[in-house]
């Protein structure tokens, strides 16, 4: 409505979130009509003042204590130079009665209790609070919040004060990231940065999120931004190896001006991540932890076993009737006598009449359900594959130091179970940051080793023999079959439902098939197969800095990012051959993949920063070189004589390959803000 009408809505977010959710479909209706309908269903009231509409719990003028007078207040909000402040918030504290200043800085509040307190606020300015019956409301002067403007933000190869930043940079601090039960820094960024879109393509535990800065910039060269941690560009976009509790700040360089220092690699934006450093003082030990649960927010409504039987019966009868009508039309066209038929015909007669159309057969397995027998199998396959998944994170850090030496160290443990059975993600990581200052020299190092273990399941694949996806298989599985057989083994009845069906015709011949959907037991697919990925990462850097003058500094930085991973999969013979009579065992299969990545960076920069009579002068120049080598291997084996040894040496390797690639960059860089 704000976009269509050009009006601004002023409201308390928590209050509006607590109101009932409604859906309205209107056309050619006035704004007043729409707001009245919303009021009728939500008890929200709307008070309009020029181009601003405030949302409250009561109508204007209602709910005021007896004996307290109401008054209208008008005024103008300006800065220290007397210039109007456009869009400043003017709010009656403790209520939702408020407005936003117009193009001239004017505001107009109506029905304000005389004993109320007014709050005037605007980003970058100190909040002003005045009594409604006080003086000076006709002209409010707001002062700049110097503490906020003097706050520094990280930019490419350095830092700047917020007041000096003229480019598009979004920033969040450690205080904004506290208390969030998330597994990676990307999750913590959701909804906190304008122009930054964070999305998740899969709900698998530990899965990486996709970050887009100001939308999709290209369709051929990828959409991911460049990630830089403590001045070192990441060689692998895997943020789940980092402990979020170690993060001091995250800045996103969103426009071409701010990210140009990184060249073409910054075309999709740059995400700068700065980790915590030690502070001068006594050692401080901190613990941060939580335990939580995750569940599927909504399951798909499916038929129970009796409803399913009715549906299958109706579908097969309709198919039989349609087929017979087509057969009889053809016979009549050939001057032949039409065949008599009925939906009570046996499966043998149906096949005989339709020329062996197996889609007309009524499966014998659903007959007890059609008779309404009690106590039959009724499996909710979604309940069988989904679970309430636990999630916990524990992090302990210690920091402190003296004027010359400062340190920060932490250890971290993260465990996240997936909502699909037999899926989980575990991370062990540690960090050590050290900064040493001696005269004009400064040295430091940052080291972050981590290990991750991921047990994955095929959650996204198709249900058929080419997919074996667990969720799709659960949605296609008939509720008339159990998860387990009486002997405790997995039931694969639906996998061989069609080939196991035999119909004896009147002439004694036997026909096999019923054209029912082939699906493997989704619980067996999740529990019997192995898909484990282990990864280790060593990420860190060392630097040295010399201050030739307070304004002139030289800095050399060397960073490494070493990432190794191995993925092992195994599919046992107990998952039978697809759509085959008798459910014979399949041939076990296994794969082994390894990936190695080695990346190093060396850069030297010279910076000059000086303040002259309130003007800030800064310049940067330097060069950087970076090298990366990637290696990977793959092997496939079958012919296992047992399921007890899932490694490739127990089978016969029948195919495999290996790859290697490398690249290097040598760049010069400079920045002189004008």
Describe this structure in words.
This protein is mainly beta and 674 residues long. It contains 14 helices and 31 strands. The protein has a 10-stranded antiparallel beta sheet with strand order 20-21-22-23-24-27-28-29-30-31. A 5-stranded mixed beta sheet has the order 13-18-19-16-17. Strand 27 and strand 28 form a beta hairpin. The two termini are 41 Å apart. 28% of the residues are buried.
| Low-confidence sequence ranges | 59-67, 162-166
Strand order within the widest sheet? Answer: 20-21-22-23-24-27-28-29-30-31
**From the alpha-carbon coordinates, what is the Rg to the nearest angstrom?**
34 Å
| Quaternary structure classification | single chain
Which percent bin holds the helix content? 10-25%
Main β-sheet: number of strands, strand sense, barrel status?
Answer: 10 strands, antiparallel
Q: Give the structural class.
A: mainly beta
Proportion in β-strands = 35-45%
Termini separation comes to: 41 Å
The tally of beta strands, per DSSP, is 31
Mean pLDDT, to the nearest integer, reads 86
């Amino acid at each position: 409505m704000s976009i269509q009408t050009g009006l601004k809505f002023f409201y308390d977010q928590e209050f509006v979130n607590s109101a009932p959710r409604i859906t309205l479909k209107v056309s050619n209706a006035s704004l007043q009509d729409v707001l009245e309908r919303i009021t009728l269903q939500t008890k929200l009231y709307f008070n309009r003042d020029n181009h601003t509409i405030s949302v409250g719990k009561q109508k204007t003028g209602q709910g005021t204590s007896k004996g307290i007078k109401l008054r209208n207040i008008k005024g103008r909000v300006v800065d220290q130079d007397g210039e109007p402040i456009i869009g400043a918030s003017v709010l009656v504290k403790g209520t939702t009665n408020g407005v936003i200043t117009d193009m001239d800085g004017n505001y107009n509040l109506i029905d304000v209790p005389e004993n109320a307190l007014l709050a005037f606020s605007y980003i970058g300015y100190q909040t002003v609070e005045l009594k409604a019956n006080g003086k000076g409301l006709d002209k409010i002067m707001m002062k700049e919040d110097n503490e906020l403007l003097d706050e520094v933000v990280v930019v490419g190869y350095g830092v700047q004060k917020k007041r000096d930043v003229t480019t598009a940079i979004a920033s969040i601090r450690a205080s904004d990231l506290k208390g969030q039960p998330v597994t990676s820094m990307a999750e913590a960024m959701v909804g906190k940065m304008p122009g930054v879109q964070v999305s998740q393509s899969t709900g698998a535990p530990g899965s990486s999120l996709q970050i887009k800065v100001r939308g999709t910039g290209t369709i051929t060269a990828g959409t991911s931004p460049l990630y830089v941690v403590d001045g070192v560009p990441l060689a692998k976009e895997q943020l789940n190896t980092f402990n979020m509790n170690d993060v001091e700040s995250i800045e996103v360089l969103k426009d071409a001006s701010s990210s140009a220092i990184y060249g073409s690699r910054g075309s999709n934006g740059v995400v700068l991540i700065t980790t915590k450093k030690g502070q001068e003082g006594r050692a401080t030990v901190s613990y941060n932890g939580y335990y939580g649960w995750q569940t599927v927010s909504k399951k798909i409504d499916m038929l129970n076993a009796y409803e399913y039987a009715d549906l299958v019966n109706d579908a097969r009868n309709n198919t039989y009737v349609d087929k017979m009508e087509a057969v009889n039309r053809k016979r009549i066209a050939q001057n032949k006598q039409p065949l008599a038929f009925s939906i009570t015909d046996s499966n043998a007669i149906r096949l005989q009449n339709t020329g062996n159309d197996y889609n007309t057969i009524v499966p014998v397995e659903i007959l007890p359900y059609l008779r309404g027998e009690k106590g039959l199998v009724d499996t909710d396959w979604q309940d069988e594959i989904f679970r309430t998944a636990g999630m916990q994170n524990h992090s302990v850090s210690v920091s402190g130091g003296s004027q010359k030496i400062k340190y920060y160290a932490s250890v971290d443990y993260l465990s996240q179970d997936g909502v699909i059975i037999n899926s989980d993600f575990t991370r062990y990581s540690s960090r050590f940051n050290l900064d040493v200052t001696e005269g004009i020299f400064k040295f430091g190092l940052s080291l972050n080793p981590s290990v991750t273990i991921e047990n994955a399941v095929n959650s996204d694949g198709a249900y058929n023999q080419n997919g074996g996806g667990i969720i799709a298989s659960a949605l296609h599985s008939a509720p008339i079959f159990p998860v387990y057989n009486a002997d405790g083994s997995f039931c694969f009845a639906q996998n061989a439902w069609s080939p196991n069906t035999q119909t004896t015709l009147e002439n004694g011949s036997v026909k096999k098939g019923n054209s029912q959907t082939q699906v493997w037991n989704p619980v067996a697919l999740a529990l019997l197969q192995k898909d484990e990925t282990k990864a280790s990462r060593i990420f860190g850097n060392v630097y040295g800095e010399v201050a030739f003058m307070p304004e002139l500094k030289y800095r050399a930085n060397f960073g490494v990012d070493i990432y190794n991973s191995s993925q092992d999969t195994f599919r046992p013979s107990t998952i039978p051959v697809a759509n085959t009579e008798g459910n014979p065992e399949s041939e076990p299969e296994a794969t082994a993949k390894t990936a190695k990545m080695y990346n190093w960076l060396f850069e030297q920069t010279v910076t000059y920063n000086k303040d002259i009579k309130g003007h800030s002068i800064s310049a940067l120049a330097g060069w950087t070189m970076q090298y990366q080598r990637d290696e990977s291997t793959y092997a496939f084996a079958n012919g296992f004589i047992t399921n007890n040894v899932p490694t490739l040496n127990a089978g016969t390797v029948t195919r495999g390959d290996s790859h290697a690639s490398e690249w290097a960059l040598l760049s010069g860089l400079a920045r002189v803000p004008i």
